[in-house]
Structures are given as structure tokens and as C-alpha cells.
Amino acid sequence: MTKTSKYALLRASVAPAILGVAMLSMPAFGQEAPATSPQAPEAQGQAIIVTGSRIARPDLEASSPVAVVSAEDIKETNAVTVEQILATNPQFASGFGQSSNNPGDGSATVNLRALEENRTLVLIDGKRAPSYDTSGAVDVNSIPAVLIERVDVLTGGASAVYGSDAIAGVVNFILNDQFEGVTAEGSSQITGDGDGAIYNASLTAGLKLGDRGNLVVSGGWSKREGVFFGARPRLAVALDSFDLVSSGGSSNTVPTAFDVPGAGRLQVTPGGGLSDDVQLYNFNPVNYAQSPFERWNLMALGRYELTDNIELYGRAMYSDVKVQLQLAPTATAGFLFNIDPSNPFLSDAQRAAFFDTAANPGLQINDGSGVGDDPTARAGTSVIGIRRRMIETGGRIEDFHTKNMQFLGGFRGDLGDLNWDVSAQYGQSKKHSVLRNDLSFTALQQALDVVAGPGGAPACFDPSNGCVPLNVFGFETVTQDALAFVLRDAIEDTKISQFIVGANIGGDIGFLQSPLATAPAAFSVGGEYRKEKGRTAVDPLYASGDLIFYGQGQNISGSYDVKEIYAELKAPLIQDRPFFNSLGIEAGIRFSDYSTVGSVWTYKLGGDWAPMEGVRFRGIYQRAVRAPNIYELFSPVVAGTGGLTADPCAGTVTPQVQAVCIAQGAPAAAFGPGGVSIIPQPISGQINIFTGGNPDLSEEKSDTWTAGVVVSPPQLPGFSASVDYFNIKIKGAISDTPPSITIAQCFNNPDPTSAVCQSIVRNPVDGSLSGPTFVGVPSTLGNVGSIKTDGVDIVLSYRGGEKEGFHYSLGFAGTWTRNYKFQADVTSPAEQCAGFFGPVCDLEPMPKWKHVAEVNLAWNNINLMTRWRFIGKIKADSDISGPEGIVLQTIKPFNYFDSTLSVDLDDRFTLRFGVLNLFDKEPPLVGDTTGATATGGGTFPNTYDVLGRSFFAGATIHF
Asked: For residue 804, what is the DSSP state?
């Protein structure tokens, strides 16, 4: 066997010594090392590359815990997308995925330790994967599941080895480049209600190039059908979280509701009357619980030994993904409009309510001086907030079409006792987004400014551009012509490119050997250059901010590059001695020179000690960084929406609070005797915010350390256990201060003259934080936050011996999150998020305890797997708890069970059948006024199963 042929074994070999854990054909989380296939005799002693280090030595232990998801686990769960592969791993929190409808863009991301997607570095075969948008996140659905041999999950910082973004850890997708023959796979899945079908098909062919190389080509197709929350009766109605009985929908409703100064909110009744009993709009039925999706993948992998010491390798990857999301129909959103008294659409009751100042002195009648949204408002018009849901549109449709490609090539080989690798890669992502069926504010102004024309017929005061009068003052009065005049679509195109060139060399240092060790130290040194470019272009209408719900699109353009050098050392200190079966240390350092943040150092120092065979202690400290991405650096400040459960200006307020609310723009008439306010609470838990980038951002810094023990006693063959403590502290976290924090900073010590209170702008008609684009709470980016999290990972596995064709295996993986504390800035309190849900931390629920357990029973060619997924109890956070809090203040523990049966009919043909959510467990009903649940069917669809029991069947045939 030639020296370079060892590279052909890197992904097909097993090296129990690497992590001191026996390799088992076990559930994914029960493994802590590379692949699970039996090791070929010639592979003994050959180099194995483990995620978390660039040093390939079979006798050196790793100090960082690495969990593994195998290819078999992917098939057992019928995972057709990469997001499904990792979804049950207790170390991961919810990222974007198949239930991400609002917000969402069709991508699927990974989120280790709930530290957000851009703090988890994604690799493909140890090389950085390209991002799909300006946030730097990677859409893992661009990676074809069929070619994944395993997924390595390293938790804790790894910037000294891999560079920026590896704060939470690394997810490394190892692809199967040793495939030979032809394999066809197919599967389908459907829910117990007969909807939500998922289809998957792939064809993979591999060719051995003599004795010197391999070529693998694979193509795949996946399709997922959409399911609306309306298809699940439990989730079909938007309920108020504070009673779970009354509607928690939107006051942008139908028939129209009007915000009338001095009179509050009034809704149209049959016959043209007005009532203060406003019936809210139920938006749940028209939001997706599972978004539709279609993807095509094509990948080619190859390697060829040019000489006995040099190997050429390469990879080409392409994916085409189409996703459609749907939100509730657009609405007028309570914006202020000037209503003319001669408008023929007005009933007598409406005309009196809008213009009779004798009955209502609080009315705002324009005097021609520019009061209201329109500085050219005519005298005699009345300023009215209009809340009309345009159900005639059928909904806001968001179409996303993303094309990803990556090309990688390199040479690797041996130089004496050293191994080297030189490579270059280019990745590109293009995303075309069409956001349909929104309303133009200026067109609405024009279409709602209706006067009596010739013969008393309705006419636009300004007839330009073919204006059609819009009637929102009755039932079913909106015509298609009027709708066509005010409706608009927005277009956004994003292009991201990444270029990387790198080289490293490593091997043994023969002269550096401890006198108490049997092997020398090993090293790796290298350098890398990386260039990231990003551009988002929006059409002129979207850029203008004229769209009511999509807001203002951002034209973003920017780039940065980084030059890096790094070094890594592993050294055995003591080997094969009493109480020191092995003792070793590892260290690494990286210097990075960014064109944006300048010079950055990252480093690591760790060690491991095995006092005897089968017991090993390990620990490592790492300094990791995350440099600001293109969006954070170059995006302009624009209006958007953010979460807020309760507005301090609503309800009964103190004189000090009232003074602040009025100073922020609320009308004095909104407050009655005793401080009783008619200012409404945030609609669906959302308010206006102002967000944007900051070119002066610096890098985030984190200090991470892990310490643990691995036990695999030879007296108990087949058993292994590991317990690891993790502690991550992030300083200078890039954060846009959550609106709840800004509100608290102002109203905890209400002062109309304070800078934080003056930064908040209120709707001049109803005093809310929604409406015109100039209304809202600032939320721009800065290195102002900090995050601290710590906890324990536990992994247990056991494989019983085989007897008469029968064997079994058991596996367990659990994560206990002791703390997750987020501090928005130095003046804010540190909020505890572990064990809570709600708007304080603006996260999906974060249980303190999660685990997954598996039992595998195998008899000859039949295998039965049963999996138990557990999500611990979670409590409502301080914003929504207490005597006046929401009804469901504690979500009880949730248990899910899945089962898969696979049968090998022969050496070529395998059938799989499975049931997910075996007992049809329904999600918790929290209601729609807790912020994060507002468009999630009253629950948390990225954490809990919202579709119920599902069945799948699949087949594999190999030629």
C-alpha cells in the first residue's frame, strides 16, 4: 500500500484510541469517533483525522468531546434534509427549518447550544462551507443527505483550529468518497391525517479508478408538501395566551376597525354602524405548520494518486432549492389616513364618528397645517387609523429560490514522515426572493382619499396613475380593481461568494519526545486566505420603505478578507506506566489579520490522562472569536418588527409613566381619569423597531472550557460512557438590544428627558408602538451583549454480544443546561434563559434537560429501532409569568417515541418502515400573545411536533 493510500481510509476506518471509546454500531449519539464500519487490516496504525484537530495520529487522544451521527441513523429517521438529521440531538437548539414560516426564508440552519446559527461553524470534509446569505449562516439543506457518511459534532470553541465562527462548536459533514457500484434510494412519508407528504429519491454511482483512486457522482431529489395550522383543529384558532379562550388574533381585521382619536378602536357593523366590541382576525389557519419545499442536488467527489506520494482530490456540489412560505393577508396596519367628509363610502354613523367634534373633542381634524402622516393634508379631513385585513389577496406569498454551488480542489501527500495538503475552494450562493401581495402605503393614501365626484360617485381626490377608490367602510366592499391598484410585490436578490486557499503540513517531531513516552510529539502548521463577498439588491419600491408589512428592503454590499497562520501541537508526556496509561497535552494558536477588525489571536490548551485502560479524563480551554459578518457591518438602518408582550403605556399608569408616554408622542387624550389608558397592547406581540448594521463593530470573543471523563472498561465489553462539563462565555456579543430591554430601561425609571426614553417614538393617534414607519423602538447593532452558558453532556452506550444471529444495543445522550444568561448591554440585567420560554430572551423554549435514548434489536437480517426523545419542563419568563401572567406558565415535560423496522431482503435490497411520534403527542397550547408563538399556531413548532404521528417507508437497492 502506498503512503498516500492512507487518505482513502480516513473515512472508512475506526480508531478506538482516538477518543478512548470503543466504536459501536450504535445510535449516533452513542459514538465519539469517526465511522462505524469495520477496520481493514491494512488500516491499522494509519492516520485518522478527527474533527477538532489537524493532526492525524492513531495513538494521540483528543481533548475535546466529539459526537457522531452515522449514515444508518439518517436512514432510520427517514431524514431527507440535513436539518432532520440533527434535530433530535440534545446539544442543538431550534434553528430555521421546515416549520419556520414567520420568520423564515426556506433555509435550514444549525444552532449549537442555542448560541445562534452564525456562532456554529459548518464544515464539509473539514473545509469551511459557504454561507447562503449576508448573515454568514450556512443552509445545510444544500448538502445532500444521501452522501453523508457521518456528521461529527464538536462542542466548544475551535477557532484556533478552524478560524472564525467556531464559538459554540463545529459541525463537520463527512462525505462518502469511497463509494463503489450503483445505489438507488427512495422513500415517502405522510402524516396520520393524510397530509404533509415528503418524498425523496437519489441515485449514486461510484467507480474505482484502478488501484489509485475513486470517482463518486450522486444526484437527489426531495419534495415536501405544505401543511397549514388550520389543518390541525387544536392549533387552528389564535387564542389569547392570558386566558386561552378569547381571540388572540390581530386587530388588523375584517370588517375594518378604526382607531378614532378620543373614541378608541371601533369596528364596522352590519348596516354601517360602529362598535367598540372589536372582533380580532384569526391568522392561524393561513400560516404554514410545515412549509412546502423542493430540492435538487448534484455532487461529484474524486481522488486520484498521481504518484506514490501525491494525491489529487476534488469536490463539486450544486443544489437548487425552492421554498414557498405563506403569511396572513396583508393589512392597513393601523396607519393614519386622511378621510374626506364627502366620501360617499361613509355611512351616516361613520361620518358622525369621524367628524363630529362636538360629540368627540378628541378628533384630529386637519386645518391645512400638515397634521397627520400627509404634510399636504387638506383642511377639513379627519386623521383616522385604519385596520383592514385584505383577505381578498389570499395571503402574503413568499417565494424563495436558492442556488448553491461549491468547487474544491487540492493536492495532498507525503514528504518523508510529514504529510501536507494544499487546496483552494470557491463557493457561491444566489437567492431570488419574491414577496407577494403587500400594500403600498402611498397607493393606499391615494385610494383612501375619496371624495364625491360628478353625480356624487366615489372618486380619488388625486386620480393620477389610474387611481381606483378603495372602500373599506363596509362588508365585502373591496373591488378587484381597487385591490390591484394598491397591491405590490417586492423583489430581493442576494449573491454570496467565498474564496479560500490554504496549505498545511504536519507530522511527527522526532527530536521532541518525552523520556516517559513511547512516541514523539506531533505538529501541524499552516496558513489560509479567505475572501467573503456579499450583495443584496432590492427593487426600488422595496428600498423605498413604502410596503406596509414587508417594510423597507436593504441594499447591502460589502466584502472582507482575512489572512491567517496557525500551529498545533500534541505531545504524549507519559505512556504505558502505572497510573499513567497515557498522559498528553495539546496546544494550538492562530493569528488572523482581518481587513475589518484587524489582528486577532485565538488559542487552545488541553490535555488528557488515562490512569488505566478504559478510563480517561480530558479537558481543554479555548479562546474563540466570531468576526462580524457582512450584514452586521454593512446593512443600513431600516424599519422592521420586533417582539414585545406588554407596553407600559397600556392599562392603568402612574403620572410619571403617563408623562413619558406623552413625551414619546402618545396623544394626551389617550389617558383618562386615574391614569386609565386606551393605548392598545402590542398586536400579536409585535411592534415597530429600527435595525441596522455598524461598520465599527469588533469581533466577539469567547472563553470556553470543557472537562470530562470517558469510561469504556475492558471488563464490560461493548459499554462506554462519557460525562463532559462545558462552560462558554461570550464577551462583546454583537447584539441589537431587544425592544423589551429598551422599554424596561426607560420605564423602570421613567424620565421624559432621559436619552433612552426619548429614543422611543409612539403613534400620535393611538399611542401604540405600531403604525407609521417613523414609529418604534431603536434596536441597532453593537458589541454590547454578553452570553454565559454552562452545563453537562452525558453519553452512554452498550452493545450486547451476538448469539444465534441476535444482538442488541442501547444508547443514551442527554444535555443539562445549568445556565444560559444573556445580557443585552452593560446597563441591562443578566436574563436567565435556561428553563424558560417567552419574550425576555427572544428564543425558542430552552429546557434545562433534553435527552434521546435508543434501543436497537437485530436478528439476522431484521433490525428494530425504537427512539425516545425527551424535552424537559419549561416555565414562562418574567415578562409573562406571575398572577397576571399567561395561563400556561409551565410547559410539562414532553416525550416522543419513534420506531423503525428495516429488513435486508438480500445483499442488495433493503426495506425500511417507520413511525414518528408513535403516540401522536400534540404540542403544548401556549396561545398567540407570547411573542415567539404569534405566528406559530399558538405553540413552538420548531421545538414540538405540530403535525402528529407520521409514517414512512423507504427502499435501497445496490448494484
From this structure: T
- Range(s) of the domain holding residue 190: 3-13+63-230+288-328+578-628+697-738+779-958
Kindly tell me the burial class for residue 78, based on how many C-beta atoms sit within 10 Å of its own C-beta (0-12, 13-18, 19 or more): buried
CB atoms inside a 10 Å sphere around CB 369:
9
Q: Does 869 lie in the same domain as 729?
A: yes
Alpha-carbon span 202 to 147, nearest angstrom: 10
For residue 255, cis peptide bond before it (omega within 30 degrees of 0): yes
818: exposed, middle or buried (C-beta count within 10 Å: 0-12, 13-18, 19+)? middle
Q: Which residue's C-alpha cell is 385610494?
A: 447
Q: Is the pLDDT of residue 625 over 70?
A: yes
| 541 pLDDT above the threshold of 70 | yes
Positive or negative, the Cα torsion across 832, 833, 834, 836?
A: positive
Please state the pTM of the whole predicted model.
0.85
100 or 401: which leads in pLDDT: 401
Please report whether residue 341 resides in a domain.
yes
**DSSP for residue 845:** -
Report pLDDT for 442.
93
Res 369: pLDDT: 64
Enclosing H/E stretch for 342: none
Give the number of domains in the chain. 3
CA 648/CA 768 separation, integer angstroms? 10
DSSP H or E stretch at residue 542: helix 540-544
- Number of neighbouring beta carbons within 10 Å of residue 579: 10
- Specify the length of the chain in residues: 959
Q: Which residue is associated with the grid cell 393614519?
A: 336
Do 814 and 680 share a structural domain? Answer: no
pLDDT classification of 913: cutoffs 50, 70, 90:
very high
Q: For the segment 141-188, what is each residue's pLDDT rounded down to a tens digit?
A: 778 777 888 888 888 778 888 888 889 999 999 998 888 999 999 999
Mean residue pLDDT across the chain? 87
Q: In the prediction, which pLDDT does 456 show? A: 92
User: Which of helix, strand or coil describes residue 266?
Assistant: strand
3-class SS string, 151-178 = EEEEECCCHHHHCCCCCCEEEEEEECCC
**Distant-in-sequence, close-in-space partners of 830: CB < 8 Å, separation ≥ 6:** 786, 788, 821, 822, 823
